[in-house]
Design a protein that fits this description.
The protein is an alpha/beta fold. Helices cover 41% and strands 14% of the residues. The chain has one domain (18-261): Rossmann fold (3-Layer(aba) Sandwich). It has nine helices and seven strands, in the order αβαβαβαβαβαβαααβ. The chain has a seven-stranded parallel beta sheet with strand order 3-2-1-4-5-6-7, sandwiched between helices. Helix 4 (82-96) packs parallel to helix 5 (120-148). The protein is globular. 43% of the residues are buried. The structure holds nicotinamide-adenine-dinucleotide.
């Protein structure tokens, strides 16, 4: 049987990763991965609203995006606060007129501790930033996408720790990232009818303030590297391809996927 569904032209195929004319929100954009992803999306043509609880850290990312000839704004947003996220999304619509891509990078590892003595307030703090924060940003982006009526992209940030336990005190972080993975799949099923693609990127490890505790401990570094078949920590640019792919028309038929960018950590 011949497939007679409409095909893209060669020109359209060449532009399949283009984000020209798209507006992205990147949370945690004042942080390491957030900055890299915000800049990466701008390289492929997106204008970017940068959100972070520490707005003073966002000057660099805004300057980088503007240097690429794209529009960028920075807002102090607490992703755990309904009011803050709602207000920031209203501001994005006021500044850019629309939103097409939401990347929820803001996150915290908290203080890793043995489960039997885990400070439950610390545990809750990690759950609030990673799970409640992801949910609130997804909720307000999703509501806008549905109102706009032409689909949208949600990219959450999971972790190898969302798939696999670890003896190193991950009762909060691992649990939160497992929840982020399932939330992403849940939203994928609910919002497919609105042409909203919901996918996650799941890194293994890269060196940032969030992983400083591990980097300071040579024994832990050795354990982590032994678990990564490619044998090294990720570099920031390793994530750009995945972020652009999941933000672009190239992934229009992909939803509910947890894309591991982890040097093979969950492969075996
Ligand atoms: N570093 C790693 O090895 C690693 C591995 C797997 C997953 N991740 C995930 O990648 C994401 C980015 O982490 P990173 O390593 O770049 O860390 P980072 O500390 O450099 O960046 C995190 C950013 O989130 C912001 N943030 C924290 N709480 C917030 C809040 N309530 N509201 C708004 N912003 C808030 C921080 O200010 C910071 O700028 C996180 O979700 C993290 O869990 C990191």
């Amino acid at each position: 049987m011949v497939d007679d569904t409409p095909r893209k032209t060669v020109e359209e195929l060449r532009n399949i990763f283009s984000l020209e004319g798209k507006v992205a929100v990147v949370t945690g954009a004042g942080g390491t991965l957030g900055h890299a992803i915000a800049k990466g999306l701008a390289v492929f043509g997106a204008d970017v609203a940068c959100w972070d609880i520490k707005p003073e850290f966002q000057e660099d990312v805004v300057a980088d995006i503007k240097a690429l000839g794209r529009k960028a704004t920075a807002s102090g947003v607490d992703v755990t606060s309904d009011e803050s996220v709602k207000g920031a999304m209203e501001q994005v619509i006021a500044d850019f007129g629309k939103v097409n891509i939401m990347v929820t990078v803001a996150g915290s590892a908290g203080n890793r501790q043995p489960a039997e003595t885990f400070d439950i307030n610390e545990w809750q703090k990690v759950m609030n930033i990673n799970v409640r924060g992801t949910m609130l940003c997804a909720k307000y982006a999703g509501a806008e996408y549905i109102k706009q009526g032409d689909g949208g992209k949600l990219i959450t940030i999971g972790s190898v720790r969302g798939f696999l336990g670890h003896p190193g005190g991950y009762a909060a972080y691992g649990t939160s990232k497992g929840a982020v993975h399932l939330l992403t799949k849940q939203l994928a099923t609910e919002w497919a009818k609105y042409k909203i693609n919901c996918n996650a990127i799941a890194p293994s490890i890269f060196w940032t303030p969030l992983t400083q505790q591990i980097k300071n401990d040579p024994e832990m570094v050795k354990i982590f590297m032994q678990r990564i078949p490619i044998g090294r920590a990720a570099e920031l640019d390793d994530f750009i391809g995945a972020a652009v792919y999941l933000s672009s028309p190239a992934s229009d038929y992909v939803t509910g996927v947890i894309l591991s960018v982890d040097g093979g950590a969950v492969a075996g």
